[in-house]
Structure formats: structure tokens, C-alpha cells
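User: Here's a chain of 84 residues. Predict its fold as C-alpha cells.
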Amino acid sequence: MKDFDQLVGSQLQTMEKLLCLQSEIERCQQLKEQLCSFPDEIKCKEIESEIDFMKDELHMIQKVFEKQTEEVILSYQAVLPLRK
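Assistant: Prediction complete.
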């Protein structure tokens, strides 16, 4: 059961990272919309680049979260027979 608790704790930390990064992406996208209305395209391109980087990072974190979910399920299934 200790392994299961550790896996769930780790997954919660990953979920927190996901949520923070998603919020940051949304904030940057709003900023990009504001900046793109100005003639300075350089700043808009910088923000687009940052958003792309964060989306890549988000995708990697999502993959980690999916793997952690599988590990949590397997750990729980291993503990389940012990509880009966």
C-alpha cells in the first residue's frame, strides 16, 4: 500500500505541474493576442515561440501523467487481492 500511496502522491505533483503549465499557456495566449494587435511582430513571435515550448513541455508532462496512471492502476490491482 505504501508504493500505491507514493505513486498517487507523485501523480498529484504531476497534475499540479500540468494545471500550472496550462494556466501559463492560457495567460501567454492572451498576451499574444494583445501583442499581435501592435505593429511590433518581434514580440509576438517571441510569445508564440514561448507558447510552443510550453505546449511541448505540457505534452511531455501529459505522457508522464499517463504512465503514472498506469502504474497507479497496476499498484492498486496488486494490493486489491490483499484487502479481500
